Amino acid sequence: MRNMKIETAKGHEIVSRLILERISSGEWEPGAKLPSVVELSQQFGVGRSTLREALSALKATGWLDIKHGGGTFVKKILPSDNAGGNSLFQEANSILEILEVRKLLEAGTSSYAAERRTDEDLVNLQIILNKMEHALLQGDTVEGEKADVEFHTAIASASRNSLLIQLMESLTQRLSETIGKTRELWFYQEKSTAERLLDEHRSIFEAIKSGNAHLANQLIGEHLTKVETVLKANIQNTKS
Fold first, then answer.
1. Fewest Cβ atoms closer than 10 Å to its Cβ: which of 73, 89, 188, 207?
2. C-alpha distances in angstroms, 56 versus 61, 64, 66, 217?
3. Better-predicted residue by pLDDT, 140 or 132
């Protein structure tokens, strides 16, 4: 196949479309492994950073699955044609509702956790943060997502309020289903890094550890509001 050369300020958008064309044409079938980043960069005539940005966009919208150290694969179940590459945002209202509930619920759990946490709670939260850091270093997104869910449920446990704990536990399945999507928004749409996400969790932990209920409440609110803001912006973009 003849290599191409793309020179544009938005090269990653063109590369994304070209990759989608190959998937749609059947050249790359569901479950198929794509060529390496180096090979794709050469084929499309773009730098590796541009190529990775295109791949991240397609992962965020449900077309690709990127496995650290294992390559990039076409999703076995593709977004519907009507999704137009924006399957994530077809579920936006559901995710937004979960985020709204979490903001209200976790405002309470984080505040009470700062006031009532035990040494055992702090040890547990630190262990979870260590898991998140290890997952980050290994590039293990699955374990990172699990640790993310564990962190928020552990804060609820530290609140020592049985009803709040039960309410948070009732959301655990929905959290597991959507936290991967919201993390993709964090990394792709906000252009943020896994390190920054980890730092935010650490800051929340430190506020709880220091017993600062107001700061814990504020930090967890800011943490959830960022994803909510980006998601709302993308909903608006898909309507325009």
1. 73
2. 9, 8, 8, 31
3. 132
* Residue 79 phi, psi (nearest 5): -60, 150
Q: How far apart are CA 227 and CA 232, in angstroms?
A: 9
Structural domain contains residue 220: yes
Residue in 59, 34, 37, 67 with CA at minimum distance from that of residue 50: 37
**What is the widest separation between alpha-carbon atoms in the chain?**
64
Are 125 and 145 in the same domain?
A: yes
Average per-residue pLDDT for the chain: 81
Are residues 158 and 102 part of one domain?
yes
Q: How far apart are CA 62 and CA 77, in angstroms?
A: 9
Per-residue three-class SS string for 140-199: CHHHHHHHHHHHHHHHHHHCCCHHHHHHHHHCHHHHHHHHHHHHHHHHHHCCCCHHHHHH
The model's pTM: 0.63
Q: Which domain covers residue 51, as residue numbers?
A: 11-83
Confidence band for 86, pLDDT divided at 50, 70 and 90: very low
Q: Is 3 part of a structural domain of the chain?
A: no
75 and 104, same domain (yes or no): no
Give the position of tokens 């064309």: 21
In a domain, 67, yes or no: yes
